[in-house]
Amino acid sequence: xxxxxxxxxxxxxxxxxxxxxxxxxxxxxxxxxxxxxxxxxxxxxxxxxxxxxxxxxxxxxxxxxxxxxxxxxxxxxxxxxxxxxxxxxxxxxxxxxxxxxxxxxxxxxxxxxxxxxxxxxxxxxxxxxxxxxxxxxxxxxxxxxxxxxxxxxxxxxxxxxxxxxxxxxxxxxxxxxxxxxxxxxxxxxxxxxxxxxxxxxxxxxxxxxxxxxxxxxxxxxxxxxxxxxxxxxxxxxxxxxxxxxxxxxxxxxxxxxxxxxxxxxxxxxxxxxxxxxxxxxxxxxxxxxxxxxxxxxxxxxxxxxxxxxxxxxxxxxxxxxxxxxxxxxxxxxxxxxxxxxxxxxxxxxxxxxxxxx
Length: 357
Description:
Layout (H helix, E strand, L loop, with lengths): L2 E6 L3 H12 L4 E7 L2 H11 L3 E5 L7 H11 L4 E5 L3 H13 L3 E4 L9 H20 L37 E6 L3 H9 L10 E5 L6 H11 L3 E4 L10 E4 L4 E8 L2 E8 L10 H11 L4 E5 L8 H9 L3 E5 L8 H8 L5 E3 L4 H9 L1
Parallel strand pairs: 1-2, 1-3, 3-4, 4-5, 6-7, 6-12, 7-9, 8-9, 12-13, 13-14
Antiparallel strand pairs: 10-11
């Protein structure tokens, strides 16, 4: 069965362009179009699509307001098209707060070197979100996970093995995430108390123009300090350092003199920032002293870095399937047998605080 998509944009040219791209995928079908937010709300109720692509700036009713109303009446995954500007970043974060689950640059050349690559990326995003929205999960989720995050003895464990915690002292928390991550990070970080006793590093797949606004927004919402990392930042307890978009963040130093190095990304790297790269650098500097957490996201970024951390004695947690926007990254570390706990996103902060002490 194809994934049904509604395309919303005030530009007829852009609607046709997106429709052609999506309809080129045999697993996708554009079932309708809308030229403003008010029409989008009516079309969602009538057509019941699996995914909506939404422009932010439109006449009659803008995309953010439309998303709020859609999520209140007929919830469906919404992908926002956004400009890669400071104002575009703020509007996109507002859209995510309103209930959108993902975003893409409106200029396809900002995300891919050619039309074919852009088409593949757009179709994959829509397929993954559409599959999530209709799937009846067969893996263990919140209902088959104990309150402390472990799998009960009668639950199936072949697809979600859970390993024993090392029980060692945690001196750093490292969190990696992608699609759905901005909202997931907000849920986690806003629950952490001001006196949290260890530093946190955050690796979120996000454009470079978005991370300053995202860090600023989190800092206003949280009791702890949140900042976009700059080269040479010294780790501080009760501070979360967000990797700058478009670059790579690695940890260096020893003991209490731990610092973050921000560097340009190699052209061969798929993710900028890369969870694998950051996690691997942590494994080299802080063996057996790190709690690494993999949250919602497409693909498997973080699995190889998490393996290095686990091999050095650190502890790995993952978000559960039921609360993920996309289960790819958590599933990758779970199925690799690296994970100590599988947690609903609403319980991650509480368990972090208990584990750190």
